[in-house]
Write a structure and sequence with these properties.
Protein name: Phosphohydrolase
Order of helices and strands: EEHHHHHHHHH
Organism: Faunimonas pinastri
CATH topology: Hypothetical protein af1432
Low-confidence stretches: none
Largest sheet: 2 strands, antiparallel
Number of strands: 2
Structural class: mainly alpha
CATH class: Mainly Alpha
Helix content: 40-55%
CATH architecture: Orthogonal Bundle
Number of helices: 9
Strand order of the largest sheet: 1-2
CATH superfamily: Hypothetical protein af1432
Strand content: under 5%
Length: about 210
């Protein structure tokens, strides 16, 4: 069997859960797949793994997929798909914890790659880009809820100085810490609920580029 010849690409490829290649330094909308996004986000833990459910000690994993599903409900319904997919680039470029992401030494090169992958995802699914304000509002309100509910905080530490999230608004959610497979299925279910004919008409369809 002859090997498939790839066109010239920028950078090196990564493996995806679908068994395909993806070039995070050269993302192309028609190579973005929702199943891949769902799988990768469901297996990526928030807060660099610093998670502990307060009532269930065995629940030490809180996925980007669960975060994204919750975010999709926090704002105007017409922007829910943007909120569901707002962290989609993490499926391809990973993520940096906020102390690094907001540091100038790390932010500039990472932001360039993140923006490229976000733009490819936005084109693929016909999203508003840059993302509307409801995305940032939902993300910050969720971060406040997450830090309150599932991020351990040792008593006696000063948690106010130097914090990198806005906790003036706390999302009215209960975080369950879904296991990865459940998170993937719930993410996909929410996507197909929002993937209306109107959205599809605005998207870059692999079958009709």
């Amino acid at each position: 069997m002859n090997a498939i010849v790839q066109p010239d690409r920028i950078g090196k490829y990564m493996h995806t859960a679908a068994g395909s290649k993806f070039w995070p330094l050269d993302p192309r909308p028609l190579e973005v797949e929702i199943e891949t996004l769902a799988h990768h986000l469901a297996t990526r833990c928030r807060y660099n793994g610093a998670i502990q459910h307060p009532a269930h000690k065995e629940r030490i994993f809180y996925s980007v997929a669960e975060h994204s599903v919750l975010a999709s409900y926090l704002g105007p319904e017409e922007e829910a798909l943007e909120r569901l997919l707002h962290d989609g680039s993490e499926a391809y470029n990973g993520d940096l914890i906020r102390p690094l992401k907001y540091d100038p030494l790390f932010r500039a090169p990472f932001k360039k790659v993140e923006d490229a992958n976000e733009h490819a995802i936005a084109r693929r699914f016909g999203l508003q880009f840059p993302y509307p304000p409801s995305v940032k509002a939902a993300d910050e309100a969720l971060a406040a809820a997450e830090v309150n509910q599932v991020v351990p905080k040792r008593a006696g530490e000063d948690w106010e100085s130097g914090k990198l999230h806005d906790d003036s608004v706390v999302a009215p959610v209960t975080i369950e810490c879904w296991l990865p497979y459940e998170a993937k299925q719930r993410f996909l279910a929410r996507f197909y609920e929002l993937w209306t004919p109107e959205r599809q008409a605005r998207a870059m369809n692999p079958g009709n580029p």
